[in-house]
Each structure stands twice: as structure tokens, then as C-alpha cells.
Write a structure and sequence with these properties.
Order of helices and strands of chain A: EEEEEEEEEEE
Number of helices of chain A: 0
Largest interface: A-B, 19 and 22 residues
Number of strands of chain B: 11
Radius of gyration of chain A: 13 Å
Shape of chain A: globular
Largest sheet of chain B: 7 strands, mixed
Helix content of chain A: under 10%
Distance between the termini of chain B: 36 Å
Number of helices of chain B: 0
Radius of gyration of chain B: 13 Å
Oligomer: heterodimer
Helix content of chain B: under 10%
Strand content of chain A: over 45%
């Protein structure tokens, strides 16, 4: 079983739509959680960290459910510029600093 | 502040050749790591280092060597390139501080023929 599982999509949504991505992780000892964004042929870039209490950054909302080992990302009012691959990333556990990446969920926002 | 710099950006090797992928950072981060990214596989950890003189294996270390003689540099060596090592390689550093998170270099696209 992979450490981090994501629905690969693709998700194709119109501008202005709300879209949600989900992710599950297998190691209950995991301590840090992130969503990264990766544009085509570019490096991953940190979108937001995910905290136990949930957190919001503009149109983006991240949630963490430790009991279910589940992470989500909600994007409201989608923009064309949101088109990218979104990576669920989990860290911690037995090896400090070690990150585990999901395979990514591809999002395309169309006009 | 250049962040994480990787060179070269592109490389074509013949099977059996060796080469070194360079990674340099100017953020004074202790933790550095190398990942490879293959279609449908996500990013997988090759080697990592928690400080100068300290390295350890990740998930897919075979065929690769690393060393960390300085905080700034963390080169990745391919000893005898194989077609299975065709991939995109990313170097990443970790900020343990207030801005906890990873910063990636722009990647090296390697093709082994």
C-alpha cells in the first residue's frame, strides 16, 4: 500500500467552479501535511501547509482528519491559472524530514 | 538569494556513462534531498542529508551516490547510467524554522539512451 493515495483525476471544471481533492495517508505517526502545486514541466511549489484545525488561504481551504488519515483541498471560484497538478504530501513519522508524495491530481480549468 | 540551483537542466547520456547532477543552495538549510519523478509514480526519495558529512538512503538509492562536504552543495552521482534512470531529478531543501517547508530546484531532465 502506498504511503499517500490521491485520485489522479483529471478534473476538468469551468471557471468559477468549486473543486475538491482528497488524499489518504497510511502512516498514523505522520506529523506534517502539505499541498504542493506543480505546473507542467516545472518543480513542485508549496501551496499550503495543512493544520489539524484546518486552514484557509484566499480561495483555498485545506482540512486534515487525523482519525481517518485523510486530507482535503477545496478550491473555490476556480481560475484558469489554477490549472496544474496538485500533490498531496505527508511528512514525519519515523524519519524526520522525510516526505511522501501522492501521485498528484491533475486539474484543468476551462473558460 | 538564488534558493536551490540545479545544473544541468537537460542531459542525455549513453548507457554506462557516469555523471554528476549538481545542487547548490544559499539558504543555509541543513536538510537536502534528491527526488526522481517518473510519469504515474509521483516523486520518490533517492538520498538525503541532514547536514554536512551526513547522508542516508531513501526509497530508491540503487545506482546513485551522494556526498555532503559542505552545507551548500549536495551532488548526485550516477555511477553507470541505465535507461531506467531516465527521469526528472529534483533537489530539495527543508527549512526547519518558522517557514517550515521544502523548496525545490527547477529540476534536471535526464535521458539515458
Amino acid at each position: 500500500r502506498k504511503e499517500v493515495e490521491q485520485d489522479p483525476g483529471p478534473f476538468n471544471v469551468p471557471e468559477g467552479a468549486t473543486v475538491a481533492f482528497n488524499c489518504t495517508y497510511s502512516n498514523s505517526a505522520s506529523q506534517s501535511f502539505f499541498w504542493y502545486r506543480q505546473d507542467c514541466r516545472k518543480e513542485p511549489k508549496l501551496l499550503m501547509s495543512v493544520y489539524s484545525s484546518g486552514n484557509e488561504d484566499g480561495r483555498f481551504t485545506a482540512q486534515l482528519n487525523r482519525a481517518s488519515q485523510y486530507i482535503s483541498l477545496l478550491i473555490r471560484d476556480s481560475k484558469l491559472s489554477d490549472s496544474a497538478t496538485y500533490l498531496c504530501v505527508v511528512g514525519g513519522g519515523s524519519t524526520l524530514g522525510r516526505l511522501y508524495f501522492g501521485r498528484g491530481t491533475q486539474l484543468t480549468v476551462w473558460p | 538569494n538564488a534558493g536551490v540551483t540545479q545544473t544541468p537542466k537537460f542531459q542525455v547520456l549513453k548507457t554506462g556513462q557516469s555523471m554528476t547532477l549538481q545542487c547548490a543552495q544559499d539558504m543555509n538549510h541543513e536538510y537536502m534531498s534528491w527526488y526522481r519523478q517518473d510519469p504515474g509514480m509521483g516523486l520518490r526519495l533517492i538520498h538525503y542529508s541532514v547536514g554536512a558529512g551526513i547522508t542516508d538512503q531513501g526509497e530508491v538509492p540503487n545506482g546513485y551516490n551522494v556526498s555532503r562536504s559542505t552545507t551548500e552543495d549536495f551532488p548526485l552521482r550516477l555511477l553507470s547510467a541505465a535507461p531506467s534512470q531516465t527521469s526528472v531529478y529534483f533537489c530539495a531543501t527543508l527549512d526547519w524554522g518558522a517557514n517550515y517547508g521544502y523548496t525545490f530546484g527547477s529540476g534536471t531532465r535526464l535521458t539515458v539512451v
